Amino acid sequence: MGSAMRSGAPALVWAMAGAFVAVEAALSASDAGLLPSGLRVAAYRQFAFFDLYFDAMLAGHAVPAQLWWSFVTHAFLHGGLLHLAMNTAVFLALGAHLVRAVGEAAMLALFFGTAVAGALFFGLLADTGTSFVPMVGASGALFGFLGAMKRWEWRYLAAHDLPKRRFWSTVLALTAVNVALSLGFGGGGGGVAWQAHLGGFLAGWLAAPLMTPRRGMAIGPI
Fold first, then answer.
1. Mean pLDDT of residues grouped by 10 in the chain (222 residues)?
2. What is the CATH number of the domain that holds 54?
3. Over the Cα atoms of the chain, what is R_g?
């Protein structure tokens, strides 16, 4: 697939962002009564990731087939227009940088791989009890993008014996944002899937050595 002008996001990145927007637009329209009601509930039931199903699977119980594809499909759902806007803006910036750094195939592999890792960590670390709490959003994969880019930055700084203050400042800032959001939403973190963010970041960090950024693209714009 071709790329857009260098000053803008590549076509693949726009297409994926368009998918995020189209899905949430339909769900929000349903919420507002402009489309048949219940679309959000139906979409979440079929494509969101549920910790309850994951825990049941670990316990050896039968689970719906939905669990398996939800490791990926949760990343294309969002919890409202604000959630969509934040994730889409970050995806356009980081996704464009990654396509230019490592190509479309590697960006896609990183997106889907870290989305799966985010869901896996959410399933392992979240405690939703017997509640059907849906985990949705692309942020696990976005933290995967950040993890890969920070690994490249670390490698560059180490190779050139450069100061690492900026690196640690960014990591601490990301940690602080997650702590603040977790404490500020959903009564103790129920509204922010920090577990998915952690899983995505670690997966991106571990996957980074498998990809070689083009010269001059090793350090991300963060």
1. 53 98 98 97 97 96 97 97 96 96 97 98 90 94 97 91 88 84 54 92 97 70 44
2. 1.20.1540.10
3. 18
